[in-house]
Design a protein that fits this description.
Elements: H1 4-14, E1 17-20, E2 26-29, E3 41-45, E4 54-58, E5 62-67, E6 70-71, E7 77-78, E8 91-96, H2 100-103, E9 105-111, E10 118-124, E11 138-143, E12 152-157, E13 163-167, E14 189-193
Antiparallel strand pairs: 1-2, 3-4, 4-5, 5-6, 5-7, 8-9, 9-10, 10-11, 12-13, 13-14
Length: 194
Amino acid sequence: MCKPLARVFLALFALCAVLPSAQGAPSLALETVVQDGLNQPLFLTHAGDGSGRLFVVEQEGRIRIVRDGKVQAAPFLDIATDVLAGGERGLLGLAFHPRYRDNGRLFVNYTRKPDGATVIAEYKVSGDNVNRAATSGQVLLVVARPWSNHNGGMLAFGHDGYLYIGMGDGGLAADPGNRAQNPQELLGKMLRID
């Protein structure tokens, strides 16, 4: 069930529409997207395919579709058996390819069982159901983590067509291993891949 704080979070993410004000400065308006049916939602986006569907990332390892204010019964992607979730771990990021309508490609960032390493993987929409992703994906990058926190997780495509990956510093307070300052480490960086 979607907890009240999660509803506020989803409303802030999905429903901030920029509206002109009398002074010309933008103002924000909030709108509820969904009331119930989600478990630990942490990100909401769309596929850019004109379908009107919204996709919600659930930390435990599922991506759910919301259409017309209702969570669809079957998950779009369910990789919960691969995902080590809890605390700052879990399925943490989702980005649809800019040409998703044509190629059906999407990318996820998650912490894997059993070791908590960060995985960046590519999946494709199912060939016979646009509301389901294929059950197997291709792992693109694995980054070992020394601790369970500071995982980052955001994925987004830039205007340059590259996939950007927000990689946390690997954990503990104040980055005691100075991984973010070390150019030889992938941790604590904004990564860009083609």
